[in-house]
Amino acid sequence: MEKSKERYQGIIPAFYACYDEDGEVSAKRVEALVSYFVEKGVKGVYVGGSSGECLYQSIEERKLTLEHVMKVAAGKLTVIAHVACNNTRDSQILAAHAESLGVDAVAAIPPIYFHLAEHAIAQYWNDISAAAPNTDFVIYNIPQLAGVALTMPLFREMRKNPRVRAVKNSSVPVTDIQMFKMEGGEDFIVLNGPDEQLISGLAMGADGGIGGTYGVMPELYIKMMELFRAGKMKTAMSLQDDVDRIIYAMCGCHGNLYAVMKEILRRRTGIDIGSVRKPMPGLIEEDMAQVEKCVGMIDDAVRTYC
């Protein structure tokens, strides 16, 4: 198996935004979170995406975060840097910066708000890729939030770019994973996005997964993939069901899901990475009992499966 493919095959948590008490990006807390992921044995980290609250951060804050991720992760974790902004120029600045730090890949969603023609989306992605000419490019397909889907004609057009190495597929239909894998070929990487269907995505051909809830329970996702690879499907599906129950419980709070997960992380590990940036709502007192319930559910599942 070639190294360039193997480095993407595994559990890759989406990296959370790390803030201090004043809501500013904290380099110290970024490094602490990377060290936690190294210790847990995940394959890599996906930096600057939805979990990284990229839409609410400046270019300089995103650069700072990635610099301190790489300070700890270099040589230990695969690092995929999501660099998309809602304009090409800023996205290219972040792509060039990411390449200068030695990341494994840069990634981008399509431009949002204005619904652009597919040739314009392809140009946007290719322009970003051109700013990091020695680095793999990952297409991020998340139509339910971006407002536009990666169609097969657009995918075929992007495949003309030799740096296009993978798709992070967060669309709900798992058949999308199958189609991208079949069209892309054996050496093309497809990564499952929806955490609630990792096993289904793997069954359809996904090489690994990138997920926002991986960070609070990496042990469970690592075990899930181990079980799948070992052919222990009954146990793998049982674990997926239990993980999904945890996810649904985490969504039952007033606070934003990322605020919930950051508090769970703090309670489970002692790592404090702050709350979320407005306009996302933070936790309220009434959320705390639900947060504690989620912590208990995760700990119970870890004892059961790991």
Description of the structure:
This protein is α/β, with parallel strands linked by helices and 306 residues long. Helix 9 links the parallel strand 7 (189-192) and strand 8. It is globular and about 50 Å long. Strands 1-8-7-6-5-4-3-2 form an 8-stranded parallel β-sheet. It has one domain (3-230): TIM Barrel (Alpha-Beta Barrel), CATH 3.20.20. The chain has 13 helices and 8 strands.
Could you give the topology of this structure?
Elements (H helix, E strand, L loop, with lengths): L2 H4 L4 E3 L13 H14 L3 E4 L11 H15 L4 E5 L5 H14 L3 E4 L9 H13 L5 E6 L1 H4 L5 H7 L5 E6 L5 H10 L4 E4 L5 H6 L4 E4 L6 H12 L3 H18 L6 H13 L18 H18 L1
Parallel strand pairs: 1-8, 2-3, 3-4, 4-5, 5-6, 6-7, 7-8
Helix pairs in contact: 2-3, 3-4, 4-5, 10-11, 11-13, 12-13
Low-confidence stretches: none
Structural class: alpha/beta
Beta-strand proportion = 5-15%
Give the rounded overall mean pLDDT: 96
**Total DSSP helices:** 13
Would you report the number of β strands? 8
Keywords:
306 residues, alpha/beta, TIM Barrel, 13 helices, 8 strands, globular
Write a brief structural summary.
With 306 residues, the protein is an alpha/beta fold. It is built from 13 helices and eight strands.
